[in-house]
């Protein structure tokens, strides 16, 4: 089991424009869906319609992701702006 024990500390997570990144990915998935829709017959003939629906699922999950990261960012900002609870010394 010693070979699975980490030898180094994990690095700090990268911070960046999370909402913009998720929004960009969502737009990309939706554009890919729109590009493939006119060729649905071609995909259906080759039993590859899962490509089309995967793009739509990516866009839908991206919308959920946008909602989530916006709420998360707002909660983090509220937590940073509020004073610490009474009796907390940290």
Give the topology, please:
Blueprint: H1 18-36, H2 40-45, H3 49-81
Helix pairs in contact: 1-3
Molecular structure report:
- The chain is mainly alpha-helical.
- The chain has a domain at 19-79.
- It is 64% helix and 0% strand.
- It has three helices and no strands.
- It has helices spanning 18-36, 40-45, 49-81.
- α1 packs antiparallel against α3.
- The chain is flat, with a radius of gyration of 21 Å.
- The model has no long low-confidence stretch (mean pLDDT 90).
- It comes from Streptomyces lavendulocolor.
- This is DUF2530 domain-containing protein.
- The chain crosses the membrane at residues 21-44, 50-69.
- InterPro entries: DUF2530 (IPR019681).
- Pfam families: DUF2530 (PF10745).
Strand element count: 0
Shape: flat
Instruction: Output the structural class.
Output: mainly alpha
How big is the Rg?
A: 21 Å
Order of helices and strands: HHH
Give the fraction of residues assigned to helices.
Answer: 55-70%
Give the termini separation.
36 Å
Main sheet attributes: strand count, strand direction, barrel closure: none
What is the percentage of strand-forming residues? under 5%
Low-pLDDT runs: none
Mean pLDDT: 90
Q: Note the total helix count.
A: 3
Protein name: DUF2530 domain-containing protein
InterPro entries: DUF2530
Keywords: Membrane, Transmembrane, Transmembrane helix
Transmembrane segments: 21-44, 50-69
Provide a short characterization of the protein structure:
Keywords: Membrane, Transmembrane, Transmembrane helix. This protein is mainly alpha-helical and about 90 residues long.
